[in-house]
Design goal:
single chain; alpha+beta; seven-stranded mixed beta sheet; five-stranded mixed beta sheet; 17 helices; 19% strand
Amino acid sequence: MASSGGIDRHCPSTARIATLPPPRFVAVVKDECDTCHLVAPILAQIAAAGRPLDVYWQDDDAFLPDSLVTVDDHELAHSFRLDIVTVPTLIRLESQRETGRTEGWDAVAWRTLTGLEGLGEELPPHRPGCGSRSVEPGVAEVLRARYGETGIRAREVVVGDAVDPVEACFDRGWTDGLPVVPPTPERILRMLAGTRRDPHATVGRIPPDMAPCTVEKVAINAVMAGCRPEYLPVVLTALEAALDPRFTLHGVTCSTCFSSPVVIVNGPIAKRLGMNSGMNALGQGNRANATIGRALNLVVRNVGGGRPGEIDRATLGTPGKYTFCFAEDESDDDWTPLAVARGFPPGSSAVTVFAGDGVQGIWDQKARTPAELTVSLAMALSAVGHPKLCQWVQAILVLSPEHYAIYREAGWGRDRITTGLHEALSRPGTDVMAGAGGVAEGMPWSRRGEEVPKFHPDGLLLVRAGGPAGLMSAILSGWPGGRDYEESQPITREISS
C-alpha cells in the first residue's frame, strides 16, 4: 500500500533514509596557504550546489568569496576540536558525526566526499596543503590547556592579573633563590612531550619528606628550572639514580657537609642536547648543563622538602646546590668513557650521579711524563677531606685535555692512570694516624703499621672534560657520609625516554 510522499512505510530502510538530514560540510583554511587560495573558488561551487558548508578561517578571510558562510577561528578553538593538522581540510558531517575528511587538494577525494562530479576540473589533480596553525610549535599545548583535557593532576594556583607570576613563585618558596619559569599548563604539557612515560607514573619517593613524585611533578620542576622538553629523560634518569638507596639522597640532603648531586652525562644524548664537555664545562653558560642539574635539585626542594635552614643543615653549602651537571669529553676513541667503565655498553647514553662538593683546582704546568703527573695529581688528591683522612670520602678527578695528552701520548688509558694514582696515594699508617705531625685529626692508631690507601678501590673516578688550553685539572670531593663506601655510592643509569 502506498502512503503519502510515495514512501513505503512497511520498508524500514527507505523510511530511515528519508528521515536523514542532508550531510553538512566544514572546511578549514588559512590565508597563508597557496592551496587554500587555490580551493577557495571550489568551496564556493560546493555551496552553490546546495551543500551546506561552513568555512573556518585561521588568520584572515579576505581571500574567500563573499558567497561563503565563514567563521572566525583565529583563536583556533574549532581547529583544535576538529583535530586539524593540515589546511585546507574538508570534512563531511552526517547527524553531527564525521563520516569523511580529506586534506590538501585531491580532486578525486573532494568529488567523492561531496558527491559532485566534475568538481575542480580546471585545477591540477593534486596539490599538498600546509600545516595548520593549530599544530605549530608551542601552539598545540596552549590549545590543549585552553580548550582540552590536560590530564594535569597537580593543584593549580591561580594568581591575579596584577601579580607577577615569577614573584608569586618566590613568595611561595618554590625557588632556589634564582627566578624560575612559571609552570603554566601549556609549559607542563610541552615538557611532558619530551618523554614517552606516563605522566602519572610514580618515579619514587623524594627524601627527606619521602613524598611520592610522579613524572608530571618532575616535568613541573623541569619547567621551573628552564629545561627544554628533550632534557626531561635525562632529568628523570638522574632522579632515579639519586633515589637508588646506595646513593643515600636523604643523607646527602640533610647533611651538615657541602655535597649535592653531581650529574655526569655520557653517550650520544649529550651531543644531541648540546651539552658542554669542553671549555668551562664545570661552569656557567650552557643551558642543558645548567638546567638539568637545577631541575634535580628543585625536585628535592619542592617535592621532597629539602630546603636550606630546615632539613638541609649544610654548614656552608656549595654552589652545586643550585646545579652541577656536565658531559664527559668522549672525543678520543682510545678513552673509555665513565659509563662504559661502569658496565654500560659503548654508544649508550647514561647518567652518573655522584654526591660531590665544589671544584678544587690542580695546577701542574711542568710535568711532562705520566709518572711525574701521577705523583703531582696524587699530592693534590691526598688533601680530599683532609690529608690525614683515608678511605673517608670518594672523589672524581676531572682530567683536562692537556693533562690527559701526557697520558695519551705514553699509551696510558683509564685503568693504568687509576692504578698509578692509587699506588701514589698509599701512605704509611704512621704518617696519617691521629696526632701524627702534631695534627689531632687522622686515622685510628690501630692502622699505624699498615700502608693505608687514600681511597677505596672504587672510590676514585676519572672523567675527561675541559678546554683545550691549560695544564690544570680538577677534583670533586665526595660526601663524607660515604666513609665506609657502603653509605653513599655513585650510581650510573642508562637513559630511557
